[in-house]
Every structure is written in structure tokens, then in C-alpha cells.
Amino acid sequence: MSDNNGSPATIRFTNGGAYERYMGIWSQAAGHTFLDWLSPAAGLQWLDVGCGNGAFTDLILSRCAPFSVDGLDPSAEQLEFARARFASHASAGGAGIPIAFRQGDAQALPYDDDAFDVAVMPLVIFFLQDPAKGVAEMKRVVRAGGLVTAYAWDMPGQGFPYAVINRELKKMEVKLPQAPSPEISEIGALRDLWIAGGLKDVEVREIIVQRTYRDFEDYWEIIQGAPSASAILGAFSAEQREHLRANLRRELPAPAQGPFTLTARAHAVRGTV
To answer: What's the pLDDT score for residue 4?
Structure first.
């Protein structure tokens, strides 16, 4: 995939259901550890920046006893999935908690100053053209004493859950869609970004998570819905697809039959306004 200039296109997320199988499970696994570390008080007004299909929003509702939750994402399709997800959220323990989703840009948040107690950016910051602007915007909309926080897959350190696919596609000389700012997910870079943004009491931590797939076919089916890989695989010849399958089988700890487990690594950062 490339743009009209021949350079790799940016990654787009448009299918909430496919994303749920591909990344939502990974996101929530990391999100649980992240919230354990964050240990937020109850009754706060939350902003989920880059909420996607609502995977992390769901964790806020189920674990944090919020006063309210707002979610923002650029993808109308992802937001449609998120709204449907919470249409009957009372059955999941979210009765009476206001939830609102809005389409918009993380670098120009459509909210008033001092509107929230917590702004969180889950697995999003490396997708921003200007991560510093995203941090500044979160700081702007959070009240004094509130939290500005994020977690992101360790892209430079190969912590991304599907890093093996990216490596194999690069060996095949496939131009991959690129996140604009992968380097910002390095733990030191996140710390420096938060400090440069004027946040106080900045802390960082590593998050290690695992996911078990039913078998290799389960894994192969899931990556068909990946936002980057799906279009690439759809354009492959049968020979190219089989070549990739064979290489993945060799590189993954997948037995001939049965389940296997993969490990991923994320970095988290928090600071106070």
C-alpha cells in the first residue's frame, strides 16, 4: 500500500468488528495492567482520545466507576461500532453513566479547557503527526491536578503484537502503511515528551501482555482483518500468500495443531496537570 507519491500510506482503521478480533483483545489485556498501575479514583470525568471501537472505553466503565466518559476518534466506522457496543451498556454495569462519542482530531480536541479529570490516549500516540500537539491538547482539556496519560506498543523495540508479520512482509519487499511517529513509543521518548509538555510528577512503566490463539488458522484468519495487512493480502497472488503463510509458520511458536501464545510489550506514561 502506498500513496500517490509511492511512499507507504498511513494506517486506517475502518472495521470495528475486525479490529476487535485483531487488536481489541490485545488492547484490553494491556489496558488492564495500565489501569492497575494508574489506580484512578472513582467519580472522574474521562476522555478517551483515539477510542476506536471502544475497547478501552469499556475498561474505563467496568473498572473505574467514572462519572462520565467521552470518546473521540477520527473514524466514523469505528465510532459506529463503539456506539453499538454501548447501546445496551446497562447490562455490562454501566447504567446511568453518561457516554458520548465524537468524531475528531486528537491534535485539535473539540472540547473546552478544563473539561475533564483524566485524558487517556490508548495505543494511539504513534499515529499522530505531531505527538507534542496531542499531549498539549490533552493537557489543555484536563483540570489542574488531573491526569494526562497514555500507553503505546513499543514499536522501535519490536513490542507490537504483530511485529512478525511486518518483518515478513518487509522481507517480501512489500511497502507497509506506516504510523507517522513510531519512535515516540520508546519509553524514554514518552517520558521526555510528557516532561517537555509541562506535566508534573511524570512516571513511566513497561507493560508485558500475552494472548493465546486457538491455532495457526485462527491467527491467520484474524490477520485477514488487520488494517494494514488485509489490503496487502487481498492483492497477493496465491503463491505470495502461501509463501507468507509458510514463513509465519516457521517464525511463530505455533504447533502443527493446537493453541500457541504470543507476547507483546507496551510502554505507559502518566503526568499531572
So the answer is: 28
Q: Give the distance, in angstroms, between the CA of residue 184 and the centroid of all CA atoms in the same chain.
A: 14
Using H for helix, E for strand and C for coil, what is the string for the chain? CECCCCCECCCCCCCHHHHHHHHHHHHHHHHHHHHHHHCCCCCCEEEEECCCCCHHHHHHHHHCCCCEEEEEECCHHHHHHHHHHCCCHHHHCCCCCCEEEEECECCECCCCCCCEEEEEEECCHHHCCCHHHHHHHHHHHEEEEEEEEEEEECCCCCCCCCHHHHHHHHHCCCCCCCCCCHHHHCHHHHHHHHHHCCCEEEEEEEEEEEEEECCHHHHHHHHCCCCCHHHHHHHCCHHHHHHHHHHHHHHCCCCCCCCEEEEEEEEEEEEEC
Taking alpha carbons only, the member of 226, 269, 257 closest to residue 244 is 226
**C-beta of residue 103 within 8 angstroms of C-beta of residue 156:** no
Residue 155: per-residue pLDDT: 94
Residue 15 one-letter amino acid: N
Task: Assess contact for 61 and 97: CB atoms under 8 A.
Answer: yes
The CATH class, in words, for 16-155+179-213+264-272 is alpha beta
Kindly list the averaged pLDDT for each block of 10 residues, start to end, along the chain of length 273.
34 59 86 96 97 92 95 93 78 69 97 98 95 98 98 95 92 86 97 98 98 95 79 89 94 92 97 98
Residue-level pLDDT at 2: 26
Cell of 32: 488492564
